[in-house]
Specification:
Distance between the termini: 49 Å
Order of helices and strands: HHEHEHHEHEEH
Shape: globular
Low-confidence stretches: none
Number of strands: 5
Number of helices: 7
Number of domains: 1
Structural class: alpha/beta
Helix content: 40-55%
Length: 195
């Protein structure tokens, strides 16, 4: 018989995945796919930011765009704001709260789209990133958790994975959503046109 703690963890993971089935989540997936596709059709790029595990998710998101997801297709411009030299330079000289906003100041253009990933919504470096993105006329999408935190209401489009006290389950839902969005973007930009 399986360990009760493992069974409980599996049940929580299934509940996190099930969160994608609610109407708000489905609407977010569709709108995020539309916004990202529109960004690419306008000649823009994605800038993707997060802390810790969410930065790893940002890197995963970017590599699926610049590489490929399910089938061969042209590369799509996406940058995870994860350069160690930049992060350590800005954190040392200006403070950790400025690590992402400084990247957006350097790289962001009006046709670009910032995607911010935060399980709490309270990371000041992501709050500042959202503010800088708005000043530079970037569109914004936020993947959030818990109550949405300080970032709630800041993005053009947001998704809050609520009902989970720990970041791991929120990140699992975020990653499933990222994969679904990438699949949808590829279909919109490449495959539907071939049918």
């Amino acid at each position: 018989m399986a360990d009760i703690k493992i069974v409980k963890a599996v049940e929580e993971a299934v509940r996190a995945a099930s969160f994608l089935q609610n109407q708000t989540s489905l609407q977010f997936l569709e709108k995020a796919s539309e916004m990202i596709s529109s960004c690419y059709q306008s000649g823009g790029k994605l800038l993707i930011a997060g802390n810790g595990g969410s930065l790893c998710d940002a890197m995963h998101f970017a590599e699926e765009m610049t590489g490929q997801f399910r089938s061969k297709r042209a590369a799509l411009a996406a940058i995870a704001l994860a350069d160690a030299g930049h992060l350590s330079c800005v954190a040392n000289d200006m403070g950790f709260d400025s690590v992402f906003s400084r990247s957006i100041e350097a790289l962001g253009k009006p046709d670009d789209l910032l995607i911010a990933l935060s399980t709490s919504g309270n990371s000041m470096n992501l709050v500042k990133a959202m503010e800088t993105a708005k000043l530079q006329q970037l569109k914004t999408i936020a993947f959030l958790g818990k109550t949405g935190g300080k970032m709630k209401g800041m993005a053009d489009l947001e998704w809050i994975v609520s009902g989970f006290p720990f970041s791991d389950r929120i990140q699992e839902a975020h990653m499933a959503a990222i994969h679904i969005i990438i699949e949808s973007v590829e279909a919109r930009l490449f495959y539907e046109a071939l049918v």
